[in-house]
Amino acid sequence: MKAFEYAAPSTEAEAIELMTERAGTVEILAGGTDLVGLMKQMLVNPDRVVNLMEIRSLREIEPTPSGGVSIGAAVSLEQILDSHYLDPYASLKQAINNISSMQLRCQGTLGGELCQRPQCWFFRGGHGLLGDDGRAVAQGDNRYHAVFANAGPAKFVNNSRLAPALIVRDARLRIVGPSPDAEQWVDLADFYRIPRHGEQRENVLRAGQFVSHIELPDPGSFQCATYEVRQGAGPEYPLTAAAARLNVQSGVVRDAKIVLGHVAPTPWRSEDAEHELIGKPLTAETIEAAGLAAIRLATPLSRNEYKVTLAQVSVERAVRMAAGLPPGGF
Ligand SMILES: Cc1cc2nc3c(=O)[nH]c(=O)nc-3n(C[C@H](O)[C@H](O)[C@H](O)COP(=O)(O)OP(=O)(O)OC[C@H]3O[C@@H](n4cnc5c(N)ncnc54)[C@H](O)[C@@H]3O)c2cc1C
Predict the structure, then answer these.
(1) How many other CB atoms are there within 10 angstroms of residue 196's CB atom?
(2) pLDDT tens for residues 234-287?
(3) DSSP string of 147-203?
(4) Is the CB of 73 inside a 6 Å radius of any atom of ligand 1?
(5) What mean pLDDT is predicted for residues 57-62?
(6) Ligand 1 centroid to 30 CA: how many Å?
(7) Which atom of ligand 1 is nearest to 28's Cα?
(8) What local confidence, expressed as pLDDT, does residue 131 receive?
(9) 66 vs 9, 100, 112, 217, CA distance in Å?
(10) What is the 53 CA–ligand 1 centroid distance (Å)?
(11) Nearest to 270 by CA among 244, 294, 253, 288
């Protein structure tokens, strides 16, 4: 590991100052379950590490005046499971429970989960995130890579398990910095981006900025669910996942939002699948049509065509679960 300066500020303003003093060479530390491994392997080599865990305001879960809930970025996943304020957001708790490792749930934070770096094994093997302008992935072992939005150099998948569940709930992020009192609100759906060159990251954060809070609006009368296709019951990442939000009245879908995970460099919204659901009776045929619509524009790589079928299955089963039906399958 490269030597680095370590700081543990107790306010947001101090953290911003510590970051802007060394803009571009600082990494944020939260639970450290992802960052520390990257630093040990010298894949990430900051001059300074700024630990957010001593900032009390980032460790709180509070109701908002508009009936929603604000979650500090340094709140652990286990704290979210324990919070009664978040009981109405059962699908978020369901997505956290899918991370079947007690250690990760206790140590990992919500901000870290959303900002974790891609698991792409070319990146983790030291070949860079966009290794050889994407040719390394295109010509190599790409079985876990993207099946959507993979025409450019970025072919990794976004690995957040919670982002799809939060995006269907219209979650927003509070981003602070780079000046001491600067803050902005960004829809989580707009937070991620597909990098086009090596200087860009996988999200819109600029040097000197970090995520301070995640805000969920009033839970409303939606039914939500997340379905993951996994190889086993351990803590490994799913192959594909989908989150669904439905508003069903008298058996007819009045509103729907579908977001897939682990299929593209960002969480992947499928308006085509939503279109197949909205205004239709919630039947087996409608659900199958939504699954098929979700994969219509898939562009699998040489070794991951199987993920297209899994993406379809994820959407169909997430919709079934949101509707209160058994997901089906084995
Ligand atoms: C063995 C193993 C298995 C794992 N399995 C899973 C899994 O199944 N599902 C899963 O989702 N994750 C998994 N992870 C990844 C990771 O541990 C979790 O996502 C965890 O929630 C990350 O949170 P953290 O607080 O530990 O993040 P950290 O490691 O502290 O940070 C992760 C990244 O996010 C950045 N960051 C952290 N907080 C902020 C913030 N507030 N603003 C801006 N940037 C920030 C950091 O700079 C760093 O780049 C796994 C990790 C390991 C080691």
Answers:
(1) 11
(2) 778 999 999 999 999 999 999 999 999 999 999 999 999 999 999 999 999 999
(3) SSS-SSS-------SSHHHHHTTT-EEEEE-SSTT-EEEEEGGGTB----STT--SB
(4) yes
(5) 98
(6) 8
(7) 47
(8) 81
(9) 30, 33, 26, 7
(10) 13
(11) 294
- Share of residues in the chain with pLDDT > 90 (%): 91
What architecture is the 223-322 domain classified under in CATH? 2-Layer Sandwich (3.30)
Ligand 1 within 6 A of 211 CB? yes
Assess contact for 209 and 177: CB atoms under 8 A: yes
Distance 118 CA to ligand 1 centre (A): 10
Task: Pull the structure tokens for residue 208.
Answer: 């000197």
| Cα angle 293, 281, 170; round to 5 | 60
- In 3D space, the residue among 212, 30, 9, 12 whose CA is nearest the CA of residue 117 turns out to be 30
Testing ligand 1's pocket by substitution, the residue of 4, 34, 57, 209 carrying the most ligand atoms inside 8 A of its CB is: 34
Protein residue closest via CA to atom 15 of ligand 1: 34
- Domain extents in the chain: 223-322
So what's the pLDDT on residue 329? 64
Q: Is the CB of 161 under 6 A from ligand 1?
A: yes
Cβ contact 111:211 at 8 Å? yes
Ligand 1 proximity of 104 Cβ (cutoff 6 Å): yes
Cβ neighbours around 84 below 10 Å, total: 7
CB of 237 shorter than 6 A to ligand 1: yes
